[in-house]
Each structure stands twice: as C-alpha cells, then as structure tokens.
C-alpha cells in the first residue's frame, strides 16, 4: 500500500498580486548542501483512522514546533509522487503567520553510514516564505503540482 501523507501549504499575497508560500528545507546530512528539490511543504505520514486535516495540523506542529494558524483550511488535492507516495495538501491564507520561533522535530539516523553511531538530526533545518517561482525549483518534484493548483485556484477566486 502506498504511503500517505498530509500537509499544510500556507500562502500569502503581496501588494503587487504575487504569491509566496511557506516551505521547509529538509534536515539531516543528505540535504545539508542541497537547495533544488530539497524543500518540502510541512507534512508527514498519518494513519488512515486519523482525519486528514487533523493529521496535517499535527504534522505541521511536529515538524516546525509551532501550531498552524487558526484560519480556514481548504483541501487543495492529493498529489502522487513517482514513488507512489501520496500527499494530501491543505491550503490557507498565512498572511498573519510569523515564520519564527520554530523548534524543529528530530529523527535518528546512523551517521556516518555503517558507523554504528546513531545521531539525531532536525526533520527541517529552516523555514522560509518564498515566491512561488522560487519554490517551484526548490520543492521536491512530487509537490510541485500543488503550486500550480494553488495558482490556478487563486486566479479563479480573484
């Protein structure tokens, strides 16, 4: 069965009508020196018994160490990676969300490989608001269609 994840993509509009999104650079030694395809929507796996939006909110909190904003969320869609993994993305206007005071969740990894030493690394090592065009190359490939869908949706409502 394919892995299922849920995430929150916050967006904000600037005075000229540009769109920025809040994305996170993946942590750990593999991603440390990478920029392109090394960023992600704050997201994570969930159990099918858990409501998907609740899972997305929980994962946002676990990865970033702060609660997602108390705003209305809309389901943007479910996007499939080439690996078969699927991520359901929720969007919300994050104009009033301050991207600071994060306490990133951690994961354990044997590092260096085959050393027998286990170290803890942050799941995410930084979070930034960035214009959609910049995010398009920085996000992992499987999440890029969410940006297109977001822009399409924002055009429909404006």
Topology:
Layout: E1 4-13, E2 19-26, E3 39-40, E4 43-45, H1 52-64, E5 74-80, E6 86-93, E7 106-110, E8 118-122, E9 124-131, H2 132-138, H3 144-157
Parallel strand pairs: 1-6
Antiparallel strand pairs: 1-2, 1-4, 2-3, 2-9, 5-6, 7-8
Short description:
The chain is 22% helix and 35% strand. With 158 residues, the chain is an alpha+beta fold.
Describe the structure.
The chain is an alpha+beta fold. It has three helices and nine strands; from the N terminus they run E-E-E-E-H-E-E-E-E-E-H-H. The chain is globular and about 55 Å long. The termini are far apart.
CATH topology: Nucleoside Triphosphate Pyrophosphohydrolase
**Largest sheet geometry:** 7 strands, mixed
Amount of helix: 10-25%
The assigned CATH architecture is Alpha-Beta Complex
Nearest-angstrom radius of gyration? Answer: 16 Å
Helical run tally: 3
Give the domain tally.
1
Order of helices and strands: EEEEHEEEEEHH
Query: Quick one: how many beta strands?
Result: 9
Q: Span between N and C termini?
A: 39 Å
List low-pLDDT spans.
none
Average pLDDT, all residues:
94
- Write down the overall geometry: globular
GO molecular function, one term: bis(5'-nucleosyl)-tetraphosphatase (asymmetrical) activity
Pfam families: NUDIX
Keywords: Hydrolase
Organism: Microbacterium invictum
């Amino acid at each position: 069965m394919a892995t299922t994840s849920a995430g929150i993509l916050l967006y904000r509009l600037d005075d000229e009508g540009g769109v920025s999104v809040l994305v996170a650079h993946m942590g750990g030694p593999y991603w440390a020196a990478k920029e392109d395809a090394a960023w992600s929507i704050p997201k994570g796996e969930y159990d099918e018994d858990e409501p998907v939006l609740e899972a997305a909110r929980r994962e946002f909190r676990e990865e970033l160490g702060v609660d997602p904003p108390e705003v209305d969320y809309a389901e943007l869609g479910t996007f499939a990676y080439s690996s078969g993994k699927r991520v359901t993305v929720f969007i919300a206007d994050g104009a009033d969300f301050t991207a600071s005071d994060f306490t990133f969740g951690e994961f354990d990894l044997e590092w260096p490989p085959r050393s027998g030493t286990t170290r803890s690394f942050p799941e995410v090592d930084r979070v930034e608001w960035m214009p959609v065009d910049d995010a398009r190359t920085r996000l992992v490939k499987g999440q890029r269609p969410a940006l297109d869908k977001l822009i399409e949706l924002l055009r429909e409502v404006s």
